[in-house]
Design goal:
By secondary structure, the protein is mainly α. The protein contains one helix and no strands. It is rod-shaped, with a radius of gyration of 18 Å.
Length: 41
């Protein structure tokens, strides 16, 4: 029982980590495109 709870908790942490990484990557890409638009504009 405890093992199942631990595995579920670790899976939740992994999902949160992936979600935050995806959000950070999207923010990073938006910043880069904004800088490119500034340079071109």
């Amino acid at each position: 029982m405890k093992l199942a709870v631990k595995l579920r908790f670790e899976a939740l942490l992994a999902a949160l980590r992936l979600k935050s990484m995806a959000l950070a990557e999207r923010n990073w890409r938006e910043q880069i495109t904004a800088k490119q638009e500034e340079r071109e504009g």
